Amino acid sequence: MTLDKKYAELLINVGLNVQEGQTLLINTAPEHHAFAALCTEAAYARGAKQVINNFVSERIERLDFLNQSTETLTDIKQWQIDESEWRVDQDLCLLALRSPNPGLMDDVDSSKVMARMAAQGQAFTKSRNYTMSSKGQWCVAAYPTVEWARAVFTNDTDEVAYTKLYDAILKATRITEENDPYQEWKNHNARLVGQNEVLNKLNFESLHFTNDKGTDITVGLVKGHQWGGGAKPAQNGVVFNANMPTEESFTTPDRMNVNGIVYNSIALNNNGRLIDDFWLKFVDGEVVDYDAKIGKEALDKLLLTDENSKRIGEIALVSYDSPISNMGILFLNTLFDENASCHIALGQGYPLVEGGGTLDRDELLERGINQSIIHVDFMFGTKDMKVSGKTFDGKEIEIMQEGNLILV
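Now predict its structure.
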């Protein structure tokens, strides 16, 4: 079996755990058509009723941004909304294959990008809630392109860079020529579940993060929060892995209870624009001041996306001494980079409370769970990161020392 086929089957069988009679939607780039065909074949072998492949080109999107007016870019047609809502009304599995092209949008007006994102966020609320609430199975994974490889391995030829990147993707997803990735993921998921159970039992009220870079921030957690990461059941009862790879334990912060300053530790590639060397200051849950040496304009627009984009919806713990971090590769892809570092997400919060998937927007806000049309992770973990947790009964417990979890 080729590694391509092994990878495709892992995504379908473990990432999504496609069930007989389900519909699979694959969102990917046109250059991934051969790999998409392997995923399609694997899904039909599992008994999928239908596989829909949706190919989107970032290069064509760039041309649209350069040549269309903001009015045209934000004109979402009703048929597009109807199609999106029809898809999530199916017994749906969603596979998103990411392959960023860092810097592609550097010559694009950021206001156009954010305006279109806002319009799509408002129009496709049902689709966003499908994944955020895990109504069905979904999985975000990656597949290489020459453009992405060239940005990561700048000193290599295109062929060598592509090979290095694909090797790194396979290593991060626990695939080799010899191993059994299904057993590897079974063991890995068990470890993450055990880690989450320890964190849940401690029932923290808040987490305090500090490092020598200048981060000193306290993040309050919503009452009744639950820690996630690794395999979990969707609302339909089917167990799946939302991210491949994954190394994190994450939960839901209190949108009104975040105070302090945080400095990023890894460059953020957001919609083809790089943002780096930035900091955010929070008071009562909201960003009140910030700056960036690289991508300040893009950060401006990101924070102004909607009324809640200056608040956060996720806080995640990742040990510095972890497989992806130890690769020493800046992937310029949040799927990988967030699994090498503790991270925070601006915007939409995961409803990680009991019965959270059934709560409406107002009920989630009342629980302290942020509601926004964006969910953008940025990395701030470092080798010297210290984290302590304060429980609801007032105990102070160390969670991380020198960047690594010490509870498990």
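The chain has a mean pLDDT of 95.
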